[in-house]
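Researcher: Structure for this, please.
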Amino acid sequence: MLNSRLKKLKEAVAIFSECLAIDKFFLEAYISRGNTFLDYGNPEGIEAAQCDYQRALAIKPTYVPARYGVLCNTPSIILVLILYRFYCLIVS
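Model: Predicted structure, token format:
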């Protein structure tokens, strides 16, 4: 099952990459490919996602989905979210 999921993620990345080869200003493709990279669940995926979010911001600095992607995937924010979830478990 895990191998099948990884194969589908790689297919999705390939499709978004094809879209970007046709139109390098297709912001939604950068965000979607970045989100797919995040689904890989490894440091390389996080780094690739950050690159895609940064590319989208280079094209349109006010693009909210790209800003959200960068913000939510910085190490300090991830740590804060993990600690908050842990806190919620303890309190409840």
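Researcher: Any notable elements?
Model: Residues 2-22 form the longest helix (21 residues). The chain has one domain: 2-91.
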